[in-house]
């Protein structure tokens, strides 16, 4: 499963335009081929907006500390493929 969160502070881009370039960029690093990715979670959040972070990692904290827009990308095992919803 590929989880991508785009934290922005000015002009936002469409969520659907975020996915493919990132998948291509981490090909060979996180997986052999992007056809291995069976599940995606893609979000965008305004840095000035209201949201809560649970279980903040040091990497995510570093992104916020810089104060500029950034991407947070996580690759984890996909949920049970036998369960649809």
From TrEMBL:
GO molecular function, one term: magnesium ion binding
A biological process from GO: DNA recombination
Entry-linked Pfam families: RusA
Superkingdom: Bacteria
InterPro entries in the cross-refs: Endonuclease_RusA-like (IPR008822), RusA-like_sf (IPR036614)
Name of protein: Holliday junction resolvase
């Amino acid at each position: 499963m590929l989880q991508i969160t785009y934290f922005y502070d000015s002009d936002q881009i469409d969520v659907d335009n975020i996915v493919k370039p990132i998948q291509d960029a981490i090909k060979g690093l996180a997986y052999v081929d992007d056809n291995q990715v069976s599940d995606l979670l893609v979000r965008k959040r305004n840095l000035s907006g209201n949201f809560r972070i649970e279980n903040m990692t040091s990497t995510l904290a570093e992104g916020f500390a810089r104060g500029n827009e950034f991407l947070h990308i996580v690759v984890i095992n996909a949920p049970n493929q036998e369960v649809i919803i």
